[in-house]
Every structure is written in C-alpha cells, then in structure tokens.
Amino acid sequence: MARYRLRFVLQEFDLPRGTTLIGRSLDCHLTIEDPLVSRRHARIVVTDSGAQIEDLGSRNGVKVNGAPIRQATTLRNGDRLRIGTQELVFSRVDEAGRAHSRTTGQLRLCANCRQPYPREMLACPSCEATEQTDDETLTASGSALSHQWSMQLFVEALERALRLGRIPDAERLVRRASAQVEELLASGGRVEDAALAALALQAAATTLATSDPAWAVWALEIYGRCGKIPPRSVIERLVKVTESHPRVVRDAIMALSQRLEPLREHASRPELDALALLSELTSEDALEAAPDWR
Questions:
Q1: At 210, is the secondary structure helix, strand, or coil?
Q2: What is the spatial distance between Cα 72 and Cα 88, in angstroms, rounded to a whole number?
Q3: Nearest Cα residue to 42 out of 78, 156, 161, 28
Q4: Stretch 93-119: mean pLDDT
Q5: In the predicted model, is pLDDT for residue 106 greater than 50?
Q6: What per-residue confidence (pLDDT) applies to 137?
Q7: What DSSP string describes 31-57?
Q8: pLDDT band at 47, cuts 50/70/90?
Q9: Angle formed by the axes of helices 232-244 and 193-210, nearest 10°
Q10: Please, what sign has the CA dihedral across residues 254, 257, 260, 264?
Q11: Among 93, 102, 107, which Cα is nearest to 46's?
Q12: Which of 10, 8, 36, 34 is nearest to 20 (CA)?
C-alpha cells in the first residue's frame, strides 16, 4: 500500500492507515492552534485505494487547491489543503521515504481577484474567472510566493473574524500577520503592494473594532519603512481612525507624509492624490479643526 504524508509549515506528518483527525483539540491526531480551526475540523482516511479528506462540519470549511469541498474528496499527490489560515501539502511517499510533493509546480495569479491557484486548473477557484495570465505564472517553491499566499490567508481570515465580531481572534490574527511582515522585511524581502494594502485596511478595521490605535499606527509605519505610498482607500480608512484617536495617530501620519515626500517627483497620478490627502491631514487647517491633535 502507498504511504502518504502531510507537510505543515516546516514539519512533515505521516498519515497512517485509517483515520487521522485534524483540528484545534488536543484529542486530534494533528492539532493546529488556529482560532479559525474547529475543535474537530476535518479527517483524512487512508485505505488500500488511496486517501480522502472530509470536512467534519467545521465553521470555516476545508479547501483543496483553493476550492471548498462539500463531501469526502480524494486526495492526489501535491494537493494543497487549506484549514483555517493554514496550508498543508499532501504527498505520496516512495519506499525510500521520499515525498513526491509538487514543490516546483506552477501557480497562476487570477487576473480578476489576484488569488494564486494551480496552473492546471481551468478557472480560479475563488471567483471562477477564466482569464489567462501566463505572463504572471509563478513557481510554488518561491519563498516570496509562500509569504504572499500566507498573507492572503491571514487577510481573508482576519476579515472574516471582524465580520463575525470575533475580536480576540482578530487581534491574534493581525498580530501574526504583522509578525510575518516584520520577518519578511528583516530578511530583505518585499511585501507585494496589493497584499500590504489589504492588510493595512484590516489593521485599521481592527483598530476601529478594538479601540486600540496600535494597529493603525503600525500600518502607517510599515508604509514608511517600505517606502511605499498607501492607496487612497487605505488613507480614507485611516481618516476614520483619527476621528477616535487623533492624538495618537497624528505623529504617525506626519512622519509618513515627510518620509514619502521625496517620492513625489516620480509618483503616478493616484499616488499624487494619496500624498495630497496625507498633506491635508497634517495641514494647519486640519490641526485647527481637531485641537486634540496638538
């Protein structure tokens, strides 16, 4: 009988014959400490004919290669399983114990929703768009793509947690996402513009939900450290934060505006509009309209 294995972060987990329970509970065979993982989230059943995964009625479901499953689904070598914010890779193992996962497989960015998905799929599993983006085909083994994929998972999970009013979960998620960004920057990597904007929006939303300005300030500081001009949508969300936390947010906005000023010469029209909005927020008129800023 073939042997199978799951790769989870930097660890590999052998799948024995029979049932393997996956969830947040310590009673599961594979425990995942993730607030979006149910206590008993899913199970993988290995038999002589292969392996299947089944959702156990979890709150957030299971996805295989980006597509949610509705019933027991047969797993194939290299399949990517999303459980909560975590991604696991299913692989077949040969007699020598080597896993045959498709770590050099190709991923394609959806032209519509910008989600990465396996090249061999005919349509994006997230939005069902079929636009071809061969010029943006990516290698799954790249560390940059790994960070990008993880960031998208964090943003998606954070948005869901805020929508459901699960504030402690949202705080844990934004803390983990920010730590990943810090790690990436420390290693000399760069954060993709769309991913940074999506995370900044959710960080500001977390501030609005928790009345803790730290996350909005962090978003402003990260833009400054990356040398990126935030899009207008991010700045407008931060404007709402200043209404509740004018004193705390003022210095961060002013520091960002000053740091980005050298970029004005080569900025695009949307970027110039964003810089103008930042300038408005730090103008004398704005300060006089909000005396608490002083």
A1: helix
A2: 17
A3: 28
A4: 52
A5: no
A6: 40
A7: E---TTS-TT-EEEEEETTEEEEEE-S
A8: very high
A9: 20
A10: negative
A11: 93
A12: 8
